[in-house]
Backbone:
């Protein structure tokens, strides 16, 4: 199905999403640019199983891409470090890492994740394993890797799965060699999760060092 073949009700929801994005990014991107990003986002998410939620997924994906493009071009300020986690399917390791860093950072770091060949849903065992830590991943969905999210990132981390990212100067690139949780038991997923959490906490300590008690007046 193409964007033009949507049923009238779904198309109406997508049109509302476009209008919302046009309002949010007024003065930054033209309506034509927003239309193009929404069209591309719909095409790249067309294999997702969440067809009933396609308008909101397209909105979220297009909004993330537009924000990243604005950050890369300097028209949108970056208030905190940007971290991008990448694995092939964006269904396991990169999703865990993004959710854990987002939870641990408490707004001090902005996190994205993506995959070079995203699958149609996040690994259910990963969702269950994260729920044990009180981290809800029901809203997470695999997203294609796009150039603008790499450009916007300060740190790009691949997950030991052979994924290749565009290389831009001035960015920090790392590869974390982690076991793929696909097909693993919940106990095995827990071990992978805990290793990811250790790496995430170490990364956070580097990106956002604790405030000096003297300097902060504590």
Residues:
């Amino acid at each position: 199905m193409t964007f033009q073949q949507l049923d009238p009700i779904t198309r109406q929801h997508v049109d509302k999403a476009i209008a919302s994005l046009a309002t949010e990014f007024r003065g930054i991107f033209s309506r034509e640019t927003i239309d193009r990003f929404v069209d591309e986002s719909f095409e790249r998410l067309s294999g997702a199983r969440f067809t009933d939620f396609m308008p909101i997924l397209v909105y979220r994906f297009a909004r993330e891409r537009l924000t990243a493009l604005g950050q890369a071009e300097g028209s949108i300020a970056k208030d905190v470090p940007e971290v991008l986690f990448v694995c092939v399917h964006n269904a396991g390791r990169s999703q865990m890492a993004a959710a854990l860093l987002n939870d641990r950072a408490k707004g001090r770091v902005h996190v994205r994740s993506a995959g070079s060949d995203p699958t149609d849903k996040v690994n259910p065992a990963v969702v269950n394993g994260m729920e044990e830590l009180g981290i809800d991943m029901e809203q997470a969905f695999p997203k294609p890797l796009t150039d603008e999210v790499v450009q916007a990132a300060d740190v790009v981390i691949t997950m030991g799965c052979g994924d290749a990212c565009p290389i831009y100067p001035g960015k920090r690139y790392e590869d974390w060699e982690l076991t793929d949780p696909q097909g693993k038991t919940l106990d095995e997923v827990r071990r992978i999760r805990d290793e990811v959490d250790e790496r995430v906490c170490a990364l956070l300590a580097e990106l956002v060092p604790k405030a000096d008690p003297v300097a902060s007046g504590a």
